[in-house]
Design brief:
Length: about 270
């Protein structure tokens, strides 16, 4: 019986893994064959396709996303707590963002290529010159009208707390809106979702594929009050996200959503 159960789990991993791979390969086709000319004709169409692609990937991974609030329209710096690589997929279902990722992601098979081709900004952690270059690059993207999503903790956590935020990225906003967003994985997936330590991406992906669903709540918070001090902005953003996570832990209830339709639920 136990052996049969393991076979069922591995069959599920294989089927879902094949579907995820097919979706990723479809993304490479879009980026190489469609986006180069479509971006010149209709940038808005490219943005809409990008969001739909992330929504399809979320469905394939059985991500069940409960959403409260909404991202700002137009150029804005989006700052989020960081639990897993899944965070990027969850945020990507909401709006077209330019993401900032650690340099190692660029070398991941297939995903690294997709990240580079879609305009992700990469940073080498611990390199002061690279950090300065990143702030400049974020500023350019923001002033070109893009929404840039960053994870100022600089690493992932188990999700129960929020590490101090790196201050430099807040300097890049240059007076443009800064919106915090809180991510919280629910139920048993609060233990499954964190991507920590020395665990490899493939090992974590297998655990995600073996799960029935991954439940996550996304809360878009109010933009930060204008301020020229990056230290103050970093502290305010972290405090807002931490307070939200603590409140949600006390008040929230699991969101059991259908895994057969795009699983997104907006709450008042």
């Amino acid at each position: 019986m136990q052996r049969a159960s393991k076979l069922v789990v591995w069959l599920k991993v294989f089927v879902k893994g094949a579907a995820v791979l097919a979706w990723l390969l479809g993304g490479t086709g879009l980026l190489t064959a469609v986006f180069p000319w479509l971006k010149r004709l209709s940038p808005a169409a490219c943005d809409a396709i990008r969001v739909k692609w992330f929504q399809g990937l979320a469905k394939t991974l059985r991500l069940c996303v409960a959403v409260r609030g909404a991202p700002l329209e137009g150029a804005a710096l989006i700052v989020s707590n960081h639990v897993s690589w899944l965070d990027v997929v969850v945020l990507g279902t909401q709006a077209p963002f330019t993401f900032v990722a650690k340099r190692e992601v660029a070398d991941w098979p297939l995903i690294g290529w997709l990240a580079r081709a879609s305009g992700t900004l990469f940073v080498a952690r611990g390199n002061l010159r690279a950090a300065a270059d990143l702030v400049h690059a974020i500023g350019l993207r923001l002033h070109a009208g893009e929404r840039v999503a960053v994870f100022p903790e600089g690493t992932t956590t188990p999700g129960q707390t929020v590490l101090p935020f790196a201050r430099a990225v807040f300097q890049a906003a240059g007076g443009l809106p800064i919106q915090p967003v809180a991510l919280r994985y629910l139920g048993h997936t609060a233990r499954l979702a964190p991507f920590l330590g020395e665990e490899t991406f493939i090992a974590h992906l297998v655990r995600v594929l073996a799960a029935e669903r991954v439940e996550v709540k996304l809360v878009w918070l109010l933009p930060l009050p204008a301020c020229s001090q990056r230290e103050v902005l970093a502290q305010r953003a972290r405090t807002a996200i931490l307070a939200c996570l603590r409140a949600e832990k006390d008040l929230d209830r699991p969101a059991y959503l259908s895994a057969h339709a795009y699983p997104k639920m907006r709450q008042p």
